[in-house]
TrEMBL record:
Keywords: ATP-binding, Nucleotide-binding
Record-given protein name: YheC/YheD family protein
Pfam families linked to this entry: ATPgrasp_YheCD
Organism: Paenibacillus cremeus
Membrane-spanning segments: none
InterPro entries found in the cross-reference section: ATP-grasp, YheC/D
One annotated GO molecular function: metal ion binding
Domain ATP-grasp residue range list: 114-356
Length: 383
């Protein structure tokens, strides 16, 4: 194949790749596009030879094979940190190989992302009030303004470590529940205001957490829900809304993430069940889609090249759309879960189509530069 794209990943315990099924589908899509997809981790790098010992999936043999190659011209970063050892490895890799060309990258933690998004007048009306966690005294002041607040780790993913604090009648006690750093559910329990500092200290809260205004996310059965929107660059370098779907959390959970046991629902049917009116549903969708494009276009002015983000949205009982979170390493499983197979295939294919477009653009630019250089050199017999 004439083009190559590298996928940067990390091994979990036992040299297992977290998204191996996704990587196989990337390889299959790549072969249809004429792109060889090469999956590797920092452990697979020979620094002295600047080579990688990558794996690639071959559809003809239905097998994964390994091969030693130089670094591909485009890197699709799918690293999700699990533990200090992996964080050390990927940090070393990025410090060592600074000139690689990425189409995906870490963007910013939740607090920094909130600050960046707050710079846009189009986005601000959709942002919940958010501040950095200082201490329990400041938290109590925030809880007087909002009956529900969420405490989120700035760098957390998949619902890990998220807590919800609901003010009970009278304001002298709270209902605390959430998930621990391993995604295990912390059951709802009453915490007196005087005990809050001690309880939060036991949960290891610190200034790496943010405090966010709670949006009413409960459905009639008490389960929380939100919407995951996937926005990607296509094969012409333009931003497109690939799709948006609802996520419903399991009972007693404060998060809706699929990895935490959540279920998926088509956006239209979930909105219709809440608001009834087709006109209201269309209005909410139009607002949500416009917001998604505003977000990526604003972030495009702040960061180097990136090809996709997952945007978590909430719709309150009045139909107002809220922006909860931006994820630079989004999953696309939600579309498979709701039976939108073509959307799911498109979600897999688009990072490769964008990478292919970039590679062709650079190839044309290199040809143009070479032609210009040749034209500028006069043959000696003409002198």
């Amino acid at each position: 194949m004439s083009y190559q794209v590298g996928v940067l990943a990390l091994y979990l315990a036992g040299r297992r790749l977290e998204e191996l099924a996704f990587f196989r589908k990337l390889c299959v899509s790549g072969q249809k596009l004429g792109v060889e997809v090469l999956v590797f981790t920092p452990d697979d790098v020979d620094e002295s030879k600047r080579q990688i010992h990558a794996i690639t999936y071959n559809t003809a043999s239905d097998k994964w094979t390994r091969k030693k190659v130089g670094f591909p011209p485009i890197i699709y970063d799918r690293c999700r940190y699990h533990g200090a050892d992996n964080y050390r490895k990927i940090s070393h890799f990025r410090r060592t190989f600074t000139k690689l060309n990425y189409v995906s990258r870490p963007l910013a933690n939740k607090w920094r992302m909130h600050q960046i998004l707050s710079e846009s007048e189009k986005i601000v009306p959709h942002l919940p009030s958010t501040t950095r966690y200082k201490d329990s005294k400041e938290l109590l002041k925030i809880c007087k303004r909002y009956s529900t607040v969420y405490l989120k780790p700035q760098g957390g993913t998949g619902g890990r470590g998220i807590l919800r604090l609901q003010r009970l009648q009278g304001g002298e006690a709270f209902l605390l529940q959430g998930r621990d750093p391993s995604r295990q559910i912390i059951p709802a329990h009453r915490v007196e205001a005087t005990q809050l500092a001690t309880r939060l200290s036991s949960l290891k809260l610190n200034d790496r957490y943010i405090v966010q205004q709670g949006i009413q996310l409960e459905l009639k059965d008490g389960r929380v829900h939100d919407f995951r929107m996937l926005v990607q660059k296509d094969g012409t370098g333009q931003w497109q809304i690939t799709g948006c779907a609802g996520r419903i959390g399991p009972r007693k959970s404060v998060t809706s993430n699929l990895h935490g046991g959540g279920t998926a629902s088509p956006m239209d049917s979930l909105l219709k069940s809440r608001f009834g009116s087709s006109e209201k549903v269309a209005e909410i969708k139009e607002t949500a889609y416009a917001l998604g494009l505003n977000v990526v276009e604003h972030l495009d002015t702040k960061f180097d090249t990136f090809c996709e983000v997952g945007i978590d949205l909430a719709v309150d009982p009045k139909g107002h759309v809220w922006l909860l979170e931006v994820n630079p390493k989004p999953s696309r499983e939600v579309f498979y879960r709701i039976g939108e197979k073509e959307t799911y295939r498109k979600a897999i294919r688009r990072p490769l189509e964008f990478s292919l477009w970039l590679l062709k653009q650079r190839k044309q630019a290199d040809k143009g530069a070479a032609a210009a250089a040749t034209a500028s050199v006069r043959p000696t017999f003409l002198k």
